[in-house]
What we know:
The chain is an all-alpha fold. It has helices spanning 2-15, 37-54, 57-74, 87-99. The protein has a domain at 37-106.
Amino acid sequence: MKKGLVVFFFFSLFTCQDVIVEKEEVPFQIHYSSLSVCECYKSGMSVLTGLINTNNNSYKTLFLELRMNCLTKYGTQLFIPSSCNFPDSLQILQDSLHTLGIDING
């Protein structure tokens, strides 16, 4: 019995190995809609966060397009805080981008 236990111990000692499992990276999901002030806010936050995370020029293009669509449709409503629109949060993200050296104006 002891032999079997010793053999099992050495067998398990030499056959066990560290297996590194790489975590699969989930692509960043962007919300993009300009159907309402709330959707504009949510989309703006999503696109700016994506830009901070990746510094990909396609996010700049999306943000410029979204900003034009939303400002054209809703104008000053975008600057009035509401239950679903927090203009200061968008400004904080824009300031963060500026600090990172990312220009979102062109």
